[in-house]
Amino acid sequence: MASLKKILALVVLIECTILTESSRLLEKKKKKNDGYGDNIFNVVNFGAIGDGLKDDSKGFKDAWDAACGSSASSPAVVVPQGKTFLLQPLTFNGRCNSNNITFQIDGKLIAPSEPSAWECKRNCHHWIGFKNLDGLSIQGSGTINGQGSKWWKLYCKDYNTGCQLRKPTGFLIANSKNVEISGLTFEDSPKMHIAFESSTSIHASHLRIKAPGNSPNTDGIHIQRSTNVTIHNTTIQTGDDCTSIGDGSKYIDIRNIECGPGHGISIGSLGIMGKTETVEFVHVKNVSFYGTTNGVRIKTWQGGHGYARNIKFERITSYASTRPIVIDQFYCPHKHCKNQTSAVEISNVVYEEIHGTSHKEIAVQLSCSESTPCKNITMKNINLRNEDQNDKTLSHCLNAHGLRNGRVHPNVPCLRFDDNF
Ligand SMILES: *[C@@H]1O[C@H](CO)[C@@H](O)[C@H](O)[C@H]1NC(C)=O
Ligand SMILES: *[C@@H]1O[C@H](CO)[C@@H](O)[C@H](O)[C@H]1NC(C)=O
Ligand SMILES: *[C@@H]1O[C@H](CO)[C@@H](O)[C@H](O)[C@H]1NC(C)=O
Ligand SMILES: *[C@@H]1O[C@H](CO)[C@@H](O)[C@H](O)[C@H]1NC(C)=O
Ligand SMILES: *[C@@H]1O[C@H](CO)[C@@H](O)[C@H](O)[C@H]1NC(C)=O
Ligand SMILES: *[C@@H]1O[C@H](CO)[C@@H](O)[C@H](O)[C@H]1NC(C)=O
């Protein structure tokens, strides 16, 4: 008898739960049904306030979960314009029902301005992340501001010995494919603004990325272990590389970019601490560099393995960048490096139609190691003048081999003249 009562009580309890759950869903459905239709998930309807003060993370997470779980064929999370949303570190995870989700950002997103107010404290990997997605478009006229200025002042004297500080990447797309990201403005990230990691077919265009020229490690877009990535029609003004192309990247197309201030477009650094790292099939076309420290650069550490190959830089204009063309197989930002017998191999690199001015006298620097010379480097139609009209430009060559054709100024005598290409 007692057990029957118990079972009855349980049934009633379950029914009540089901009832409240379904009325909650109904309520949610009503809320989101704000004139757009059933596929729109406006963060405001999920509790986000947008006053720039209250933590809106939950509203975003709930809107995402609803969109991701929705049976609509093209669900869209909407972040309305005219509001500022404060977000703690947040990851939007995939395996969603739809493979055509839109994340429409027209408002402003901000991170907590005090590093101590970040919920991950001194060990934050990223601020906003998208993971495990297939078929996502992140778009809109909104701004994503990492409020990094207080992070920039924190640093460890030596990153290798017991330093517990990890600065967060602003915006991460990882383990995903078929992602488009366009129209947005990114500002003041604590570290790099955008990172694409372990992803395939990621297409970025019409972005603006902006941070002070002296902000440390604020790369514009970093690519790592990713295939088929395009970055088009984008302006990047930061304190580090405009784009950096790291290990495991291939089929990368970077086009119509305005870069500077910053450190230029870099492949690498590759081969740190003896690692085997690879980059191949990179095409950089129609890029202007404004007062950057480097223009197009390939940098590798001594002692590494692997390769950087099949790389083409074309239609590059330098406006007083310090060194427009650099290959550096002795990369060492901290002065404690030793020369070693192995190095990441650099080969099949094309420079074509590279014009403008250089801030330093040495406009072209090809520094390759004796054990692993750079092979098949070709230059065609290069004209780099000194920013100061009265000074000439020079090249520096060490263990670099290949061909040159057409006018190549400054002369790069380590490349053999050949007019057959
Ligand atoms: C994907 O979603 C967008 C925006 O909702 C829509 O314009 C487009 O037609 C959809 N594409 C497909 C293949 O469903
Ligand atoms: C690269 O991405 C584009 C667009 O998403 C796609 O059409 C193309 O097939 C992809 N190429 C490769 C090699 O994956
Ligand atoms: C980038 O701009 C060029 C020139 O205006 C245009 O032809 C091209 O379609 C644009 N690319 C993208 C991906 O929007
Ligand atoms: C080259 O890039 C610039 C932006 O830096 C763009 O305005 C121009 O249209 C591009 N040229 C071509 C031919 O796409
Ligand atoms: C490594 O070798 C290069 C080229 O010979 C030289 O310029 C550089 O000073 C060497 N570095 C060290 C730390 O010995
Ligand atoms: C040299 O590099 C070019 C451009 O990447 C490539 O087409 C060519 O096959 C390479 N030549 C050799 C001998 O590897």
UniProtKB/TrEMBL annotation:
<dbReference type="Pfam" id="PF00295">
    <property type="entry name" value="Glyco_hydro_28"/>
</dbReference>
<dbReference type="GO" id="GO:0071555">
    <property type="term" value="P:cell wall organization"/>
</dbReference>
<keyword id="KW-0378">Hydrolase</keyword>
<dbReference type="InterPro" id="IPR006626">
    <property type="entry name" value="PbH1"/>
</dbReference>
<comment type="similarity">
    <text>Belongs to the glycosyl hydrolase 28 family.</text>
</comment>
<keyword id="KW-0961">Cell wall biogenesis/degradation</keyword>
<keyword id="KW-0326">Glycosidase</keyword>
<dbReference type="InterPro" id="IPR012334">
    <property type="entry name" value="Pectin_lyas_fold"/>
</dbReference>
<feature type="signal peptide">
    <location>
        <begin position="1"/>
        <end position="22"/>
    </location>
</feature>
<feature type="active site">
    <location>
        <position position="263"/>
    </location>
</feature>
<keyword id="KW-0134">Cell wall</keyword>
<dbReference type="GO" id="GO:0005975">
    <property type="term" value="P:carbohydrate metabolic process"/>
</dbReference>
<keyword id="KW-0732">Signal</keyword>
<keyword id="KW-0964">Secreted</keyword>
<protein>
    <recommendedName>
        <fullName>Polygalacturonase</fullName>
    </recommendedName>
</protein>
<dbReference type="GO" id="GO:0004650">
    <property type="term" value="F:polygalacturonase activity"/>
</dbReference>
<dbReference type="InterPro" id="IPR000743">
    <property type="entry name" value="Glyco_hydro_28"/>
</dbReference>
<dbReference type="InterPro" id="IPR011050">
    <property type="entry name" value="Pectin_lyase_fold/virulence"/>
</dbReference>
